[in-house]
Amino acid sequence: MEYSNAFIGKSDTPTHAEVAEALGEKVKLWDEFIAWMSEKEGVSDQEWKGVVVKKYGWSLRLKKKGRNIIYLSPGKDCFMASFVLNDKALRVAKEAHLAKSVQDALEAAPKYPEGNGVRLLVRREGDLAAIRKIVKIKNAS
């Protein structure tokens, strides 16, 4: 999976204009997904985080009642959607009849103390279908 955060080394929070510049025409997918999260899933709290920005860059955390649901990290003409799933949510996601590439990512998800890390790259509209399903699974767990 070829991906690099667009804001590695940036000292301050990215603006929407900077995100749009990095994503190019994919900013439409970014904006539509964030709107969908708020309207359909009730996930409207947003927080930019830059943890070791010189190495990893910035990510936008979408939260519901203080709980991190998904992390979105802008890249060049794409973005990364990352989840931390508990064992139950991971099991349900594996049974959800998702695309093979998504199933492979679920199988390869590293185990951390806070849960299983799943990262999916968004390059086109079709990539969001699986991410939406996983969001619903996470919200239900």
Lay out the secondary structure:
Elements (H helix, E strand, L loop, with lengths): L15 H8 L3 H15 L3 E5 L9 E6 L2 E8 L4 E7 L1 H8 L5 H8 L3 E2 L2 E8 L5 H13 L1
Antiparallel strand pairs: 1-2, 2-3, 3-4, 4-6, 5-6
Helix pairs in contact: 2-5
Written account of the structure:
- By secondary structure, the protein is of the alpha+beta class.
- It has a single domain, classed as Alpha-Beta Complex (Aspartate Aminotransferase, domain 1).
- 37% of the residues lie in helices and 26% in strands.
- It contains five helices and six strands; from the N terminus they run ααββββααββα.
- The chain has helices spanning 16-23, 27-41, 87-94, 100-107, 128-140, and strands spanning 45-49, 59-64, 67-74, 79-85, 111-112, 115-122.
- The chain has a six-stranded antiparallel sheet.
- The radius of gyration is 14 Å and the shape is globular.
- The mean pLDDT is 95.
Distinctive features:
141 residues; alpha+beta; Aspartate Aminotransferase, domain 1; six-stranded antiparallel beta sheet; 37% helix; globular
The number of domains: 1
Structural class category: alpha+beta
Q: What coarse outline follows from CA principal-axis ratios?
A: globular
- The number of strands is 6
Helix content: 25-40%
Q: What's the SSE pattern?
A: HHEEEEHHEEH
Low-confidence stretches: none
Q: Over all CA atoms, what is the radius of gyration?
A: 14 Å
Work out the helix count.
5
Query: What average pLDDT do the residues reach?
Result: 95
- Strand order, sheet with most strands: 1-2-3-4-6-5
Query: What separation lies between the terminal Cα atoms?
Result: 28 Å
Q: Can you summarize the main beta sheet? A: 6 strands, antiparallel
CATH topology: Aspartate Aminotransferase, domain 1
Architecture per CATH nomenclature, i.e. the level-2 architecture: Alpha-Beta Complex
Specify the CATH class: Alpha Beta
Strand proportion, as a percent range, falls in 25-35%
